[in-house]
Amino acid sequence: MQFLDKIKDLAKSDKKTIVLPESLEMRTLEATAEILKEGIANIILVGNKEEILAKAGSLDIANATIIDPQNFDKLDVLVDKFVEVRKDKGVDEAKAREILLKEPLYFGVLLVKCDMADGMVAGAVNSTANVLRPSLQIIKTAPGVKTVSAFFLMIVPDCDYGDNGVFVFGDCGLCQNPTSEELANIAKSSSLSFTNFTGKDAKVALLSHSTKGSASHPDVDKVVKALEIAKANYPELVIDGELQLDAAIIPEIAQTKAPDSPLKGTANVLIFPDLDAGNIGYKIVQRLAKAEAYGPMTQGLAKPVNDLSRGCSAKDIVGVVALTAVQSQQQSK
User: Fold this and answer.
1) Alpha-carbon dihedral of residues 176, 180, 183, 188, nearest 10 degrees?
2) Phi, psi (5° rounding) for residue 310?
3) Which CATH number fits the domain that encloses residue 308?
4) What is the CATH number of the domain that holds 239?
5) How much is the pLDDT for 294?
6) What's the alpha-carbon Rg for the chain, to the nearest Å?
7) Which H/E stretch holds residue 80?
8) Residues 190 and 279 placed together within one structural domain of the fold
9) 188: closest CA among 206, 174, 162?
10) What is the side-by-side strand order in the sheet with 239-243?
11) CA nearest neighbour of 331 among 290, 303, 289
């Protein structure tokens, strides 16, 4: 069974409700039809019902729930919650109502915040910043989490590295230039994400252009410090750094470059030193190795809201919805 099929089966076992606010985007509607057909999740689409159905054409989205903010009978509940969480930032009832009637992303996030949905997926036509801004403002971080970050679940075909080609890459979508402490926090969150989705133990590599002092630079120092913090704060982690990629994932090279590493070249969670490296890295693997790249998945929020690449396909949206549903299952345990 393919990895994504396992994720879909998990999603079906405890079906969640996911909001797709980009309801006039054809890829969203194609994904909705497939999600409903496979029984992966319940879907809420946000917008005018007639416009959405007209756009969908022959696609079967009859079992989707379509909520039009303009005539939603529980709008006042969303408005009240919006004011409650943002009143310190100057959001009053009038402003909250104005935003909810005009901004589907905010409307979707408030549905999640108010337990009318379990998660949200967007980004096919919106930037990462636009998708995550309302999430950070309204849903906020999970208890005990210091750093909200993003990761990609990478499925590399015909690959013996990682967990038979399955990796978590972090952070590839949110933290521009994380500090040492933030890198350590990202490592912890990413390890949990890997285990939650695969059921396997995480082996975390803090990546660098240096392996165990082979280069000297403040960027290397940042990663070395991150390892110290991670070991102190999260002693249960199997983690090492600073490591070049080959020393992290290839046992033969690890034996030469980092013979004392607890990873022994078997890392399945790769933590990049900054967003440039992470974004470039995942796209190289996606395009040149023809890997499936699901994300950027958000980790550390109190409830799951996940971003899509604007170059995503309908198939990608189906995958991220399944992953979001599983995230919700894990958070509700």
Assistant:
1) -160
2) -70, -10
3) 3.40.50.10950
4) 3.40.50.10750
5) 83
6) 20
7) helix 75-86
8) yes
9) 206
10) 239-243, 204-207, 269-271, 166-170, 149-155, 292-299
11) 303
Same domain? 258 vs 178:
yes
| Tokens, residue 230 | 């991670």
Beta bridge partners of 150: 298
Domain extent for 165: 149-288
Mean pLDDT value of segment 54-66? 95
- Whether cis (ω within 30° of 0) applies to the bond prior to 242 is yes
Shared domain for 133 and 156, answered yes or no, is no
pLDDT band at 25 (very low <50, low <70, confident <90, very high): very high
Q: Are residues 119 and 180 in the same domain?
A: no
Measured over the CA atoms of residue 176, residue 178, residue 183 and residue 188, the dihedral's sign is: negative
311, part of any domain:
yes
Rounded to whole angstroms, the Cα distance separating 242 from 224 reads 6
22-36, 126-140, 185-199: segment of lowest average pLDDT: 126-140
Per-residue model confidence as pLDDT tens digits over 235-265: 999 999 889 999 999 999 999 999 999 999 9
Is 271 within the bounds of a domain?
A: yes
Work out the pLDDT band at 146, boundaries 50, 70, 90.
confident
d(CA 187, CA 262): 16
